[in-house]
Every structure is written in C-alpha cells, then in structure tokens.
Write a structure and sequence with these properties.
Structural class: alpha/beta
EC number: 1.14.13.-
Oligomer: single chain
CATH class of one domain: Alpha Beta
Keywords: FAD, Flavoprotein, Monooxygenase, NADP, Oxidoreductase
Pfam family, one: Pyr_redox_3
Strand content: 15-25%
Number of helices: 16
CATH architecture of one domain: 3-Layer(bba) Sandwich
Bound molecules: NADP nicotinamide-adenine-dinucleotide phosphate
Radius of gyration: 24 Å
Cofactor: FAD
Enzyme class: oxidoreductase
C-alpha cells in the first residue's frame, strides 16, 4: 500500500522517528516504503537502541532468538541464522546492523542526535523538534520509538561521585571492554541486568561483591547452541508460526497451563514445575492458569523456586539471603539467568544483603554499610535499572496543543489511548507506549504491530485527505480505566516493581503495561481500525 506524501511544501519531513532500535528501524522501513519522507534521530553513535547501550558482560535476551526477530520480511527471516537459543547482545546488534544495511536504512538515520524538545504548532499542524545541538527540524508526524527501558537510573547513594575507581552502569557499558583482571568489583542491583552480569563478572574479577536489596526470582535459561535442524524445521513453517505468535498471549508460543495450580496434587504440581524448570526460560510462569491471579496458586510456584535456590546454593546462610519473599513470583519481572545462583558457590564471591544492612555511603575506596562493614572496591557496577516506560519520552520536553506539557498531563501517571496516542498531542505516536502490552510481551512482535497500525492509520488519513489525528479524551479515559481494571485483577500490582514506577522516588504508582495479552490487544486495535478509528478525531487541512 502506498499512502504517498501529503505535501511537498511545509514541514522538513513527513515523519520524524525518535530512536533507531528495533522500533525506529522498522518504522523507517515501513513508512518509507509507504511513500512518506522519514527521518530518524538517534542519540547513540550507532543503531540498535537497547542493544547498542546494554553491552555489559552476559547481556542476552530472555526471548528465544527465532522469535526475537522481525517477521516483516520472509526473505530476511529465512536468510538470517541465529547461533544460540537465546541471542547474546553482540549477535542482536549484528542482526540489526544487517537489517539496516539490507533495507538501506542508514541514509535516513542521524546518529549522535539527541532530541531535547518537541512542540506542536497548532496553527501549522506540525511538530517542531529541537536537538541537543540546537538544531530545529519540523515534521507533520512524530513517532516516539525511544524504548521502554532506555533512561538508566543511578542509585541515590551518598558519595557515589567520590568513588576513586571506575563506575560502570550496565546500560551505559563502555565499548572497549574494561579489564577486570585482578580487580575487586562491586555490583549494586540484582534485576535482570545484575543477574546476567554477575556470573560473568565473577569469572573475570579477582573478587566480586554483590549488593542485593531485593532478592529476585530467577529462572535458568538453559541457553545452548541453536540446533540447525530445529531452526530449519521452524523456518519451514515460519509464516504460520509468526501468525500464531501475533495472536498469542505474550508474543511467544508457550504452553500456557489450563489447570489451576490448586486443583492438582502437590506431586503433579511439582512435576509440572520441574519439567518447565528443565526446559528453562520464562515459560515456567505459565505452568498453571492462575499463577499470576491467585496468591495461593502463586505461592506454590514461588516455593518451588525457593527450594531450587536452597538446593543450588551450598552455604545455607547465603541461600536464605537469596530466597525472595514478600511479593508474588512474576509481580516483579522474573529474571532468566545462566548460572546465577551457582555463582555464589565460587570462592571470591560475596553477597551483601543491603536491606538488612543498608549501604551508608560510597567512599573513594569502596562501600560502607550501616553496620560499619567496609567493602573495598576497584570497580563499581551499577545494575540499578531504568526510569521505565515513560522515562525516555518524558526526558524530552514534549508540548502538545496550547503548549500543554506531556509531563504535566502525565503528572499522576501516563494516560494513553491504546498505548499509541495521548489526547492533546496530535500526530504523536508512542511505539509500545504505556497502556499497551509492551514490556509484558515479546517486544519485537509488539513493535511490528504498533508500527503497522500507525502506518495503516497514516494511510487512512491520507485517503481522507486529512493530516491531523488525535485521540479523543473520552476514548482515552475508557482505555485507561480498562487497562487499570485488568491489572487490578492480577497479582502484578503487588510487587514494588518498575512496572509500577516504584523504583523511581516520586514517580506515580500506576501499573503501566496492558495485561490482557498480545492477541486480545491486537484484535482490539484491528477492530478500531476496521471501524474507521472511532476513538480518534481527524482534521482536514482546509479547515485550518
Ligand atoms: P531492575 O530490574 O530495575 O533492577 C534494578 C536493581 O537495582 C534491583 O535489584 C534494585 O533493587 C536495585 N537497586 C536500585 N537502586 C538501588 C539502591 N539505591 N540500592 C540498592 N539496590 C538498588 O533493572 P534491570 O536489571 O536493568 O532490568 C530492567 C528490565 O530490563 C528488566 O526487568 C527487563 O525487562 C529488561 N532487561 C531484560 C534483559 C533480558 O532480556 N534478559 C536483560 C536486562 C534487562 P530493588 O528491587 O530493591 O529496587
């Protein structure tokens, strides 16, 4: 389908895309194919988004490689060969580089270009976008493709800036791999990034101290080389597989248990958990239908994992510190690791429980805790996470109709229609925004769906001869209420997680992702389009 450009005069570009990760690259490809004049602005010095920045040792995706890849090109998916079950960061980055070259994307991407502000001009119905270098560009439409986990957070610990050694954040890892041989390394944070980095850092450093505030539930990845026969078999039915994935629960074809964990015997339950533990990966959490809905059901899965931790970790005192408590398994994102718990059996690896003995200060030589214990360090690794889901968008001073600031509109939490648009901000699209499945799904599947939906919408606008589109406030209110209602029926809000903004002091506590499932959500978006976009207002340029 070719929408064609709407006008040759007017804005510098038809569409400005912010971010050149999975979302920005596909947005450029799809919209340019549709005939729009598209420009991508990317703050990094390379493409890849998350996979450009998060190059810490052990960085690996927790979605299997053959699913964590674009489906828009049958030729691409046949040609590209993944080498491991779960792709490591360098391989994902190489894949994205290949995609960018194969589809000639680089010529429309400006690297090293950070967007600082975006202001909607009501009169001309265009966006004026400002960069950190002070340049201003205009576009009819803006696509926010900056990612859900791309605004890294440093911990608020006194003395961090006095540390004499090197400070490394997992999400800003240097391109030249630091030499850790002989170093005493400290890691703060045991979420997905910390859990993946710790086993590799333990191999490289002379001594590793892990500062853990909340013990997390971690599942084994059982990563392995991808069997070429398995890959070939999937490739033979890739189209059909992709279609099923698009209507699945989370963008991966997992066996979701249909039984309640409470209606089977303890032996049957443990057999199911053990089978899934042996398979590896996040599929464990789908063992029974009510694990994320019923606390008693959830306890059975949590207890199983607690038992595994006690089995793996030799020192019972260390094992007890690693055993999570106080929140349901899955309410904070489960991490998928390679040898995380067993790392604590290595000599030279120490676990400090900073909930029991809080970090008092970082000083030039290391970290001191409240008990007076001192931990001398040469290198400090911050695996302290992100201002998730809204951080990247709100880092830009976005102003919509009548100068309304997005930060002001979202002061009590993000409000969107379908996670794709927000009322008062015409012609602005959020890829995998809050209120869509986003981080609860295979991101690539959700990204492709959002980009295609936006591209189809722009095509439909063009056919109407309109060039302005905006979410209706009543449609947005209904969507926000629906998203909240769905999350309240689950255990998700019971974890102090970044899903809720709980990791950022002062951030409103709102459960941000849509929990109703990828397939249900996609059907809803398709219905909206089929009905002619009833939740949106569109405008004719002649009316301006
Ligand atoms: P995270 O899950 O937010 O974990 C941050 C960790 O730092 C938590 O353990 C947190 O403790 C701790 N922390 C933060 N501030 C602290 C402080 N002042 N003192 C002590 N500890 C502090 O961040 P992340 O590990 O970077 O992961 C974020 C998300 O990115 C993941 O959930 C996942 O969605 C994605 N990710 C995915 C992969 C993958 O695909 N395998 C890999 C990495 C990241 P509390 O829990 O107590 O707050």
């Amino acid at each position: 389908m070719s929408a064609g450009r709407q006008s040759s005069a007017g804005p510098d570009h038809d569409v400005l895309v912010i971010g050149a990760g999975f979302a920005g690259l596909y947005a450029l490809h799809r919209l340019r194919t549709d005939g729009w004049r598209v420009r991508v602005l990317e703050r990094g010095d390379g493409i890849g988004g998350t996979w450009f920045w998060n190059r810490y040792p052990g960085a690996r995706c927790d979605v299997e490689s053959m699913d964590y890849s674009y489906s828009f090109s049958p030729e691409l998916e046949q040609d590209w060969q993944w080498t491991e079950r779960y792709p490591a960061q360098p391989e994902i980055l190489a894949y994205l580089q290949h995609v960018a070259e194969r589809f000639d994307l680089l010529r429309d991407i400006e690297l090293g270009t950070e967007v600082t502000a975006a202001e909607f001009d009501d009169h001309a119905a265009l966006w004026r976008v400002t960069t950190a270098a002070g340049a201003t560009v205009t576009a009819r439409y803006v696509v926010m493709a900056g990612g859900n986990l791309s605004a890294p957070r440093d911990p608020d610990i006194p003395g961090l800036d006095t540390f004499a050694g090197r400070v490394l954040h997992t999400a800003r890892w240097p391109h030249e791999e630091p030499d850790l041989a002989g170093a005493r390394v400290g890691v703060i944070g045991t979420g997905s990034s910390g859990t993946q980095a710790v086993p590799v850092l333990a191999e490289r450093a002379a001594h590793l101290t892990v500062f853990q505030r909340t013990a997390n539930f971690s599942l084994p990845a059982h990563n392995q080389p991808l069997d070429p026969e398995v890959a070939a078999e999937l490739k033979a039915r890739y189209r059909d597989h992709r279609e099923q994935v698009r209507y699945s629960r989370n963008g991966q074809l997992r066996a979701w248990g249909e039984r309640s964990a409470l209606e089977v015997t303890p032996e049957e339950r443990d057999k199911e958990y053990e089978a899934r533990w042996q398979v590896g990966g996040g599929g464990f959490i789908g063992a029974f239908r009510d694990l994320l809905a019923d606390e008693r059901a959830n306890d059975t899965a949590a207890d199983f994992v607690r038992g595994k931790i006690r089995e793996i970790v030799h020192d019972p005192a260390v094992a007890e510190r690693l055993v999570p408590s106080g929140f349901p398994i899955g309410a904070k994102r489960v991490t998928v690791d390679t040898g995380y718990y067993a790392t604590y059996n290595r000599p030279g690896v120490e676990l400090v429980d900073v909930r029991a003995d809080p970090i008092e200060a970082i000083h030039p030589g290391g970290i001191r805790t409240a008990s007076g214990d001192d931990h001398p360090l040469d290198v400090l690794v911050l695996a302290t996470g992100f201002d998730a889901m809204t951080g990247a968008v709100l880092a830009i001073d976005v102003r919509g109709r009548d100068g309304l600031a997005l930060g002001e509109k979202w002061a009590a939490g993000p409000r969107t229609y379908l996670g794709l648009l927000t009322a008062g901000f015409p012609n602005l699209f959020l890829i995998t925004g809050p209120g869509s499945p986003s981080v609860l799904s295979n991101m690539v599947v959700s990204i492709e769906q959002h980009v295609d939906w936006v591209a189809d919408l722009l095509g439909a606008l063009g056919e109407r001869g309109h060039d302005e589109v905006e979410a209706r406030p009543d449609a947005e209110d209904r969507w926000v209420a629906h998203v909240n209602e769905l999350s309240e029926s689950t255990l998700f809000p019971r974890g102090n997680s970044w899903y809720l903004g709980a990791n950022v002091p002062g951030k409103p506590r709102v459960f941000m992702p849509y929990v109703g499932g990828v397939g249900t959500y996609r059907r809803h978006c398709e219905d909206v389009a089929a009905q002619g976009y009833p939740g949106l207002t569109t405008r004719d340029p002649a009316a301006r």
